[in-house]
Amino acid sequence: MREGQRICQNCKTSFFIESEDFAFYKKINVPPPTWCPECRLKRRMMFRNDRNLYRRACAFSSKNIISGFSTDKPLVVYDRDIWWSDQWDSMQYGLEYNFKKPFFSQFQELLGQSPLPAVFNGRSIRSFFCNRVSALKDAYLVFDSFEGENVAYSSELIYCKDTVDSLQIWNSELVYESVTSEKLYRVFFSQNLENCNDSFFLYNCHGCASCFGCTNLRNKSYYMFNEPYSKEEYQRKIKEFDLGSFKNLQALKQRFQELKLRSIRKSAYTFNSSDVTGDYLWNVHNCKSCFRLTDDVRDSKFLVHGGLKISDSYDNYGAGINAELLYESVDSGVDGFGYICDIIVYSGNDVSYSYNCYGCQNLFGCVGLRNKQYCILNKQYSKEEYVKLVPQIIHHMNKMPYKDKKGRMYKYGEFFPPELSPFAYNETITQEYFPLTKEQALKEGYLWKDHEMGDYTITILSKDLPDHIKDVTGDILNQIIGCAHGGICNENPAPKPPRCRASCSTAFRIIPHELEFYRLLNLPLPRLCPNCRHYQRIKQRTPLKLWRRKCYCAGLTSSPQAGTRFVYQNTAKHFHGSDYCPNTFETAFAPEGPEIVYCEACYNNEVA
Q: Which of 341, 334, 358 is CA-nearest to residue 394?
């Protein structure tokens, strides 16, 4: 089939399907999508709640548990350990396929009666209030992370130790308030780093040690605000800054923010990658419109957050680890092959329209199965029966499509309708990247959950905390601290007015390991609740979309553009001489943003 324009069934804007896309759809035998790439991404993200946790009773034992599913959802929720035990059988909830009802209506019925684990937290020790994690030890309020120890208030950590208030950090130790970096040791308040140690306030630096307030450095030591110092001068200046003071720290943060705005940015943050478009890509090849991928990702498109050897896949969020031919899936992969429209499916092949299944083969429309094969709606079939029935179901999905409340049609090949999600729009990660007000979400036909106020009394306000960590006593562990945002998160990018109150939890506590961490590293107490701090980190990353732009390099300096406050003075000769750079590129930096964005060639002239 030839490439061409389509009109998105959801947002009504046009989008383009390439000939290479049709080749992929033909390979997995699905029709081309009727939603544009951005709407498809939002739809998948609406099935993933990372950070919102609730108290509810286990439906099996009546034990009080912590769950990612709120009590107002018509679901059966088991304690995590009970769900993984042999005390119950998911096959007892099997349904006979009904050709008089749309498939998605039947799946919704199965989802409502099949037990779900309270949290997705596997092989972890003393790691409470954590969700979508595995193999953590002594973790607290950590989400979407793997293999870590003594970590807290963070998301997207892999192989980290003693890390607090960070986002997307890999293979690192003693890290605080840092974003999208790997191989760090004793690094604080930094972003976009590789192989750095003993440093503060770095942006886009590689191989640096003992540096402070620097951008775009390579293999430097004892630099401060991009100027070289002797070791003795550097150490003396660090002491003078006295980072244990909250007041001092705030002034340095402001100075660092201005330094970042004066510095150039490469059009895309990619390493050891070829023939790619997107942002934050490590060892990725022949992939388009992809974001936050790592470790040998190939021949794929529209992937967000994942990797670790995934290939020949389209439209996935949080997928990977030795996986191939995945389409429209969420949190799936792990030695997986041939997944179509799945959510949390690991270690199997030929699985379609299934939720929370492990080690399975040849499933269609199943929930909560382990080590099963040839099942439809949790009902067992022989291989012959399964092979005969699945094509009939696909034909039925096309003949009797599901219609949601907004009139959107869902035939075979379409991902689950958002109204089937066990979460409200503002409970999911969609709200972090594509924020809506309550009125906007409801108008779009999405669910919304009003914020539940906690049962607590604030005992001390943020403004009344000691300025310096040396003045903090052990009594702080008994205090309930009022968030400086006072319930209305100034960091939340939700449309204004009104601001989204649900993002600020209004109050927080300091836990013992956290206090030890601040004292050890001479860091002041935070003034914001964990949610507001999380939104501060989210704002530092580029959005999950691309714009076609021109290079800002004007030969001798950067060109003044709308939104930019500063002009960068070039330090090297460029291939275009004193003329404007002719290069264009796709970038995740928005045209109206304040960043000075250079093409890769011009950036490398200045930095590499």
A: 341
